[in-house]
Fold this sequence. Notes:
Helix 1 (about 1-85) runs antiparallel to helix 2.
Amino acid sequence: MAEFLWKKLKTLASFDRELSLNQEKKTTLLKKVEIEKVELTKIKIHITELKQDALLKQKQVDTLELDAASLNIEELKKKTAIETSTTKKELIALRHELSILETRRKDIEDSLISAWHQLELAEKALTSAKENQDALLATHTKIIHDCTSEIEALTSKTMLLLTQEKNLLDTIPEEWIKKYQNMKERVTDPIIPAIDESCSSCYYLVLPGDIARLKKGAILSCRSCYRLLYYDSDEEKSAHTAQY
Ligand SMILES: [Zn+2]
């Protein structure tokens, strides 16, 4: 069993690396989902504001139209009164009142033209926002959906890894788990190969006697960085291939 222990610890390290990578990915995705949700809310608020604005502009138009209509009625009344007036004094007074009403009506008509224009602009803004809204909502919703699926996949992967890790831990002696975990608290690569008779992390030379023990499958601590060292001829070969 001893000659396989380094392989187990190496696998354990790869599980741990993958687990922490999954956690990082998950955190990034969760942040992205939050950002997208804020965007969705912003779009909805924008549309609500535009709707309220269009309603307000419509109310302004309605009020002015009512004012104009009631002024029309008053003007008609005055005109009828003028036609039936009996004295010159009354006629002058009525004509004066009528001219005031006419001025007011013209002012209201000017305001109404401007209010109609404002309403038209508000309605156009709302229509175009609504047209864009669907596409934007779909885009943001899709991103949220995709991120959520990725998060779910990562969660399943994590669960599986944890199970595999637990099974693996059951086969590793307690003292080695402790040594590995102590080292893991300090460095991200607690177990590494010795390559060319030295530690592949800090390059500190491994004593010839220790090299012999490593080649028999032992695990030793580097005398300089204390990482757990093992020897794997395949890894040494591929390190040479990478160099040249
Ligand atoms: Zn070292």
